[in-house]
Amino acid sequence: MSEKAVARPGGRSARVQQAVHRAVRELEAEGGRGAVTVPAIATRAGVTPSTVYRRWGDLATLLADVALERLRPDGPPADHGGLREDLEAWAEQFVEELGSPTGRLYLRDAVGGAADEGVAGRCSDYAAEQLRAIGVRAAGRGEAVPGVEALMDAVVAPLVYRILFRPDGLSVAYAQGLVRAALTTD
Amino acid sequence: MSEKAVARPGGRSARVQQAVHRAVRELEAEGGRGAVTVPAIATRAGVTPSTVYRRWGDLATLLADVALERLRPDGPPADHGGLREDLEAWAEQFVEELGSPTGRLYLRDAVGGAADEGVAGRCSDYAAEQLRAIGVRAAGRGEAVPGVEALMDAVVAPLVYRILFRPDGLSVAYAQGLVRAALTTD
């Protein structure tokens, strides 16, 4: 998402963004990635193609923007009363949401926006912020908590790597194993 | 790379593949990703655009094919006489080759060929085969060796994740730290 894509909530700019994002999601759901073209998006969203190009630059950057929106957490991670339980539940949800073909596509799109590599970083920050929130809560209960970057390496990185490159064996049990290993060694 | 892109060495098919791959690399080097279009590739390679489409299907699949070719190891991993030394040297080379903007682009392209998700898997297999070769050599010297999938999780996944999503702090020292941690806990 480039600077110019930042929209004030409620303004025309925000309405265009919503309509264009919705058009991308609908076209994708109806016809797959091949159906997602700038002319089709513009027609569906009721704007001109030049509005899309002016705002996002190119299709890859628009897709990265849509992916970022979908990857943004809905709220703080669920509280299950313990560090291990919270991390396991978070990792389970991660696998369920991003291990699907659609989730994989979002991750791909997030690294695909050549015009703005910051989208991938923000997507990674979402995960780091969720892990930090879980850690702060656990520390408040007096639990020993591994650092956020250690958890990124031990839990998030293997999950994302396997979703994108090596899906065989990716499962909730595998994700929980990563969490247990991270808590044993740290 | 789809089945039809598999070429017999020396045949016309192989010559077309070489010319097209070279055209992609040259256009990329000269004008960046924006210069890499099917018409420009075809002109540079001396073939028709329909030859490119017939063989690769679309640009993303061609780019994934080129990326796979560049990510293929040149030979067996260097032998430094010990498991830790071999893994550290391998991880260092991985960071130097793939941590560059060009390397990141290859990794992105490898997951970007929607028409054939197998490219990402083969790219991952290259790394697994190198780690397996290092492990077999170390076992032959009587060293204790972690499993290949454990090394994929502990070393390869964090490196690839950080290259694609979270480059801050990515360095040779970081890669070596991952290797040491993998050998301590396994």
UniProtKB/TrEMBL annotation, chains A, B:
Entry-linked InterPro entries: Homeodomain-like_sf, HTH-type_TetR-like_transc_reg, HTH_TetR, Tet_transcr_reg_TetR-rel_C_sf, TetR_C
DNA-binding region per Swiss-Prot/TrEMBL record: 37-56
Domain of life of the source: Bacteria
Domain HTH tetR-type: 14-74
Keywords per UniProt: DNA-binding, Transcription, Transcription regulation
Database matches in Pfam families: TetR_C_11, TetR_N
PANTHER family on file: HTH-TYPE TRANSCRIPTIONAL REGULATOR RUTR, TETR-FAMILY TRANSCRIPTIONAL REGULATOR
The protein's name: TetR/AcrR family transcriptional regulator
